[in-house]
Amino acid sequence: LLAYSHSDDGSHVKEYLPIGVSLLNTRREEISSLQGTTDEWGCLNGSFTIPKDATPGRFRLQATDSISGRTLYHEINVEAFKAPTFTATLVHPQEVLHFGDSLTLQGSATTYTDLPVAHAKVEYKLLVTDMNIFGRYPLPDAYLYESAGTTTTDAQGRFTLPIQVRHTASFEENATYNHIVEVSITDPSGETQQARTHFIVG
Question: What is the pLDDT of residue 8?
């Protein structure tokens, strides 16, 4: 928590300010609270433990200035944790690829007991980025080309993705590009897991 005030000459931290902080559940009932004082930088640190049997929903962190009585709050979303039941896998391509090549990526969805996840929906995206000057990592959020598609897993939980390596007008000649493939697999019960791989073309 950071406490500060505004005035005509700017913002100022509220140092050594006594503050009470409460955690409220979805019914706005107080679960826990703490009292503290901000440090010389106007900061107050603390933590709360959400009960395991708490009802999921919008919880509220409520802070009260113990001197002025002013109260502010921030809402947080609390969700029930569900352990994943399966994993998504993409096989990294081993061949050397060039623009104009066609590639078939292999993937699978398997439970943690090694059973296939059959008839699951597979959504996939191909994202192409330029490489930075070190030639290893893509520039963030610099997608030059995107494509997408859908398919389903077969009875053995396997799927294939047809990928076309294209050279578009936005690509420079003799440059190297990182091709990222992302998949999102949703099983019949609604659980979703992701996987990704990448390959270099250029």
Answer: 77
